[in-house]
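<derive_structure_tokens>
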Amino acid sequence: MMNKELRKNRHSFHSDNNERDVQFRSRFSNLRRPYSLVNLVSNSKERSSEVYESASVVDEPATPANNSLSLVAAVPRVEDNVKRNKVNKAIVSIVLVEARGLPDPPEDGCNHTVYCKIRLGEETIKSKAVQVNRHIEWRERMKIQLNKDHVLRISLWDKGKRRNFMGSCIIDLSYLELERTHEIWQQLDDGYGSLHLSVTICSVTNDDVAPNTNRDVVHNNEKYAFYNLNTNWKVVGELHVKLIAGKGFSGKPNAYCVLELDNERVQTPASRGTELTWNKSYVFNVHDISSLLDLKVCDNSLVNALFSDTLGKISIPLLRIRNGETRWYALKDRTKKNIAKGNCPRVLLELSVFWNPVKASIKLFQPKEVKHIKKTPKYDITLVYKNLEFVRDTFLLLMVINDAYKQAFEWDSQDLSFMMLFAWILFWWYFKLWMLPLSLIIPFLFYWASSRKHRKY
């Protein structure tokens, strides 16, 4: 009897270990696959379904229709006719925007913060920690090198008395289009809630072939005609940018360009020399036709990276673009008031914008899209000095006006007061109501007299 019981216990012990090994292997294999949510749904009979209540998943094999309910703006799948990008060296720009639907932290009397770990290949970066609530915002931009591994792994952690795992998700970057910004809402596979990411893959060499953006003009005009209202109402048009060359910079910089339109941002490869050549084409989705295309030229050197200095920048309104026109745009300095340093530095651009007038008109009555990354206000000494000068000049002007009033109307100067009294009587004797608009000439007369006085000195 004792031997039989021992055999039963050994058998149950080995079966429990086998089940744990199978669960661990399946979990590990799912984490290595690009779309683990599909695998997790298919294996939901073997695992507890409580974790996936927020994803609205049933115990059935997943279909594309079911997946579209759980993933908003998901990454294209293998079934879609999307070609994998074969770029091996690129920069992945990730904007960690926000997280929603996260569970409440445990009430242990400790201050809880949440941070993300992002891993691509052997490189891991960590976001800043923010306070835990139902709607968490990071609004942080991070850059990571893309090599052979195209699987982006993101994990969410709660930090209190001890570190707790809150969920993870996986994105296959090989199905994302190069040189385009992708807004992704990704459901957490191992927990509640979802993450909002903005991902852009920018090649660092000119060898990587970007998608051809020179589409047919007739096709784009037809796509965004006023009667074509069947497409996405959030996108009112497309902006096609061809960055050709640049010249006039001081020295021989190793320069690259950053183009930004609202929340879409791309970066060109670096080019060295006195006359820079990029020859890169990009496409931006237009969400507001009144937006500006911001172009910034930066030097890829250590000094400029430390001081965040630029070689020049310019903002181009979309409504002033002439389609298909190739022209030089002069660059300005950091304040966008003066010409940048150099021999009139400029860039050669070819711009075309296609937009639906009906959608764009309706979009103007809606709130403007909030930028993911907001510039923090900096303490500017020159601005403080200019404000102090303005206050000083204002008080000096008030003192001059006060002295003139005393001399004219308080009889400090009897001759001047008599002349002002005589002029006052004549004014009301000859004044008519139709003469009132002539009073608008007084500021111009004052400016003419003051400028003439300065010329003498």
Summary: The longest strand covers residues 135-146. DSSP finds nine helices and 18 strands in the chain. Residues 202 and 256 are 12 Å apart (CA to CA). Residues 1-82 have pLDDT under 50 and may be disordered.
